[in-house]
Amino acid sequence: MAASFLLLLTSVGLFLSAQAQDCSKPVGGDNMDLKGDDILLQTFPDGIKVTFACNVGYQSVGGSASITCTAAAWSPLRMTCERKSCGAIGDVPNGQVDYSEGIQFGDKLTVTCDPGYDLVGNSIIQCGHEGWMGRLPVCEVKHCDPPVDPTIGSFYPVKETYEYREVIQFSCPEPFTLNGSKSLSCSETGVFQPAAPKCVQVECKEPVVKFGHWDSGSRGPYTYKTTVMFKCNEGYRMTNSATIICGINSQWEPELPKCEPVECEEPVVKFGHWDSGSQGPYTYKTTVTFKCNEGYKMTNSATIICGSNSQWGPELPKCEAVPAVQTTTTKSPESTTGRGHFNICLVRGIKDYSGMFDLFTVQSLDWSLNELLTLIFC
Ligand SMILES: *[C@@H]1O[C@H](CO)[C@@H](O)[C@H](O)[C@H]1NC(C)=O
């Protein structure tokens, strides 16, 4: 009984001491785990050696992967794991590889094709445990279908299909004119640009300009880009372009010249006024005659004519103040006393009082404009 009790105590003691020597589950570094079935255990007996392995996508960059349990403690783990790198994948002709996310495990690269190229394959490839998971796509050049055969005219070269950037040239037989672009290019969207031209027959009508006449240029037939210059008849003036060009739509461009009757501006004569003639509108060859206001004298022609250039000719009448002239005698009214009888031959000024006066009469005149008045005694 006692022996068996002792035995029990011993086995308990052994069990306890064995428990005290065991290690608990070791904790590894980042991105690693215990290798094999060890991962299932919770306690590890004294003296056992376990090995760590890097997780998928990671690789050891040195240091021992094994540790040993000694008296309930694990030896230090030296191994470190680092994300695997897939490296560069290579170039894609006519495309770009975007590695901006990185080239390590889990990173993705993106391939894009240059304008005018189509991507065939996968544009996104991920970096896996064993390298890039997939093949690079290819960038295939875009193609354009040939344009629809024109009814008139042709293009060159003729092919079943055209590659991006290829150019074709159109031409028209005589007497047709190409309406549109002569050359088309296979664009990056896979269609020819710009739109295909057409061969059109251009002929403009005989241009008729009212109050005008042919001046120079073509006499017809009026084919594409034919030019004619017009002039207006006398007394008319051009209000738009004198030159017209036969356009692609068989219309004259910019538009037929317009001849409008000439008109002169309202004539304004300073210190003068209308006397006779037209009072407007002042068309070509209209005449107006002016008179100067009192105290002013006309120094050029009183009559003007509206010229073909819309200008009055010869020039607008000019009215100038009559200049004051000094007394041309030694005698003057002031020096005379009484009612002497001086004959005055001429009184010039604002009013023309020429004539024979005696002094009394002279004194009774309106002298308010004295400065402009001159008495010439005789
Ligand atoms: C020429 O082309 C223009 C632009 O496409 C079009 O508007 C015009 O009608 C064409 N003219 C003729 C005579 O076909």
UniProtKB/TrEMBL annotation:
Domain Sushi per the UniProt entry, residue ranges: 21-83, 84-141, 142-201, 202-261, 262-321
The keyword rRNA processing belongs to this UniProt entry's keyword annotation: no
Cysteine disulfide links: C54-C81, C172-C199, C232-C259, C292-C319
Presence of keyword Disulfide bond: yes
PROSITE patterns given in the database record: SUSHI
Superkingdom: Eukaryota
Signal sequence range: 1-20
Swiss-Prot/TrEMBL keywords: Disulfide bond, Repeat, Signal, Sushi
InterPro entries xref list: SEZ6_CSMD_C4BPB_Regulators, Sushi/SCR/CCP_sf, Sushi_SCR_CCP_dom
Protein name, per record: Sushi domain-containing protein
Organism: Pagothenia borchgrevinki (Bald rockcod)
Lineage, highest ranks first: Eukaryota, Metazoa, Chordata, Craniata, Vertebrata
